Amino acid sequence: MAYCSQKTDTGLTEGILKTLHNQLGMCHRIPLCKIEEKWLALGLPLLRLQAIWTTGKFGYDAPWTHFLALAAAQISPTVSDTLALLCSLFTTDPEGSDPAIPFGLFTSLYYFLAAEIGSVPKSHVRHVIQHHAYNIQGSCGLISPRVFQHRMAPKLHPDQPK
């Protein structure tokens, strides 16, 4: 079982997010009470859960991918790092490989994060998506951090250093 790290004020770690995903990720929408039960069992602060819930403007339940994206953003400094972490959480590839996810999932997560936390203009998001849609055609419709963090790829946030 993963334990809280004192490196962040959230108590969240990649290991804890992986544990939550393993426990709850089989459903598309998850009720708040179910997430809260697992969250508290892992010793995570209730206020942090409430902040994520408020940021996501979730009601009785939340789309799991959106909830996990906001939780991952709590421990990742950039949109690019958040998406890389999400790739490692959502991949079905063996551990140690470049964690690839379906391009449709990447697109959904990127649009959501850009709107909720990234303040990334929609025109920039569309440009990035179009670029990667063209470039992933030969990779079975999968995208990985190696692709979207490549030095020649467009940055996921226009203010991200080159």
Automatic annotation (TrEMBL):
<protein>
    <submittedName>
        <fullName>RIIa domain-containing protein</fullName>
    </submittedName>
</protein>
<keyword id="KW-0282">Flagellum</keyword>
<comment type="similarity">
    <text>Belongs to the ropporin family.</text>
</comment>
<keyword id="KW-0969">Cilium</keyword>
<dbReference type="GO" id="GO:0031514">
    <property type="term" value="C:motile cilium"/>
</dbReference>
<keyword id="KW-0966">Cell projection</keyword>
